[in-house]
């Protein structure tokens, strides 16, 4: 084939092609960078640095059905929060709004009824991690130390402590007790967790929580319910301030 029959793009055509190609790459880069920034901001903790509840007026109580009530007696409103200690989306909610919620509790704007469930037991390495974490939560709540309970609750869902679904390991009772002790829980609570004293009770309470979740109309965890209405807390990052 002679050289005159080969395709030789004109300089103008080539230049336009490169300009358009460069613009396309630039647009894609902007979209990717924007997406990364958006995702980073979306997962960034709100009120970062506040920590758990600090107000001595905040009380914690383990109720007969296993629900843990955390709040000031004069709290303006009360919400129900359903979660499983193995649930990654529950950890996402805690990481995003936990500190913001703690300040709202301190300020008397809201009290929280924690329903800690165990439906992810089967995905834990031990086969009963969620139940034992429920028991640990109850051990700490029963001591009446609201500050320690808030800190322990946050620690349970922290990236460094939450076991992975279908992972190769989770925490023993002794390790859960250590996490509680590090959060400020009393020796009584630590011993309660270590001995597994509340495990069977926790299993019963978790089932009651599962039934309450189903009755609320929520389809899974985490679920936040206020006055019978399910709040889409994962999608609405402002849900705490809007309570």
TrEMBL record:
Top-level taxon: Bacteria
Segments passing through the bilayer: 18-38
Pfam families on file: Thioredoxin_4
Residue span, Thioredoxin-like fold domain: 68-241
Record's keyword terms, sorted: Membrane, Transmembrane, Transmembrane helix
Protein's UniProt name: DsbA family protein
């Amino acid at each position: 084939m002679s050289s005159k029959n080969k395709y030789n793009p004109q300089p103008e055509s080539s230049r336009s092609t490169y300009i358009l190609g460069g613009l396309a790459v630039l647009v894609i880069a902007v979209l990717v960078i924007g997406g990364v920034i958006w995702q980073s901001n979306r997962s960034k903790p709100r009120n970062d640095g506040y920590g758990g509840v600090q107000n001595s007026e905040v009380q914690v109580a383990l109720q007969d059905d296993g629900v843990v009530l955390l709040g000031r007696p004069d709290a303006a409103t009360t919400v129900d929060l359903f979660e499983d200690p193995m649930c990654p989306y529950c950890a996402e909610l805690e990481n995003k709004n936990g500190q913001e919620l703690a300040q709202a509790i301190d300020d008397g704007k809201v009290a929280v009824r924690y329903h800690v469930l165990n439906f992810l037991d089967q995905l834990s390495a031990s086969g009963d991690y969620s139940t034992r974490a429920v028991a640990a939560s109850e051990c700490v709540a029963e001591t009446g130390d609201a500050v320690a309970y808030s800190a322990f609750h946050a620690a349970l869902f922290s990236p460094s402590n939450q076991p992975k679904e279908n992972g190769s390991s989770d925490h023993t009772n002794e390790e859960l007790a250590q996490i509680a002790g590090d959060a400020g829980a009393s020796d009584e609570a630590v011993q309660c967790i270590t001995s597994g004293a509340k495990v069977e009770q926790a299993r019963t309470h978790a089932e009651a929580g599962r039934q309450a979740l189903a009755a609320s109309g929520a389809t899974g965890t985490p679920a936040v319910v206020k006055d019978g209405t399910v709040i889409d807390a994962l999608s609405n990052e402002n849900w705490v301030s809007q309570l």
